[in-house]
Design goal:
THP_succinylTrfase_dom1, Tetrahydrodipicolinate-N-succinyltransferase chain A domain-containing protein, alpha/beta, 3-stranded parallel β-sheet, THP_succinylTrfase_N_sf, Trimer_LpxA-like_sf, UDP N-Acetylglucosamine Acyltransferase, domain 1, Tetrahydrodipicolinate-N-succinyltransferase, Chain A, domain 1
Length: about 200
């Protein structure tokens, strides 16, 4: 038997269905675009803070430091952690020498170090002689380091050398049994001799 061609009414219904499918698809795409436009990254991994934004956040938090505690989260904690990471990597310095030869103190980085004591709770710090531990707020710079990490860093750390996290140690440095406090910057080819102490933010 021969097939019947669809009538005008059937063709009109089919066109209406196609139009609805297109409209639904367009609406769905528009909604996705709107959701994407509303997404604001809220972690340093998504969108690292600029130095000026870090400085502003740290300065504002320091002025209101009475309200900062171990329960503080969000932007303030992220800013302080980011600042300490910059110090630890040597990408920022609390005290830096300008082209004129004068020394400049980046007060906001010093404030970030001070805020970290309010933000971080006491905890067990491994690495003591005979597998002993310390009880402190600042972990060792070398926590979790293995042979590859030490080789990449390119400095010597003999037994008894203590360096706190956020201190920077450059290549070819020799650390004898000594103490390097947080936020310090030890430049290339320096020897920190036996029982020497490098102060915080030095």
């Amino acid at each position: 038997s021969s097939r019947r061609r669809p009538g005008r009414r059937s063709r009109a219904i089919a066109r209406q269905k196609d139009r609805r499918v297109c409209l639904d698809s367009a609406a769905s795409n528009s909604e996705k675009a709107l959701q994407n436009s509303r997404h604001i990254p809220d972690t340093p991994k998504d969108r690292p803070m600029s130095l000026s934004a870090l400085e502003t956040t740290v300065n504002t938090a320091f002025d209101a430091r009475e309200g900062i505690s171990t329960s503080t989260k969000g932007e303030v904690r992220e800013a302080v952690d980011h600042a300490l990471e910059l110090l630890d990597k040597g990408e920022a310095r609390v005290a830096e020498r300008e082209a004129s030869g004068k020394w400049k103190v980046n007060q906001w980085l010093k404030k970030a170090v001070l805020l970290s004591f309010r933000l971080n709770d006491m905890g067990q710090i491994a690495g003591g002689p005979g597998k002993a531990s310390w009880w402190d707020k600042v972990p060792s710079k070398f926590e979790g380091w293995g042979e590859n990490r030490f080789r990449d860093a390119g400095f010597r750390a003999v037994p008894g050398a203590i360096v706190r996290r956020s201190a920077f140690i450059a290549r070819n440095v020799v650390l004898m049994p000594s103490f390097v406090n947080l936020g310090a910057y030890v430049d290339e080819a320096t020897m920190i001799d036996t029982w020497s102490t490098v102060g915080s933010c030095a």
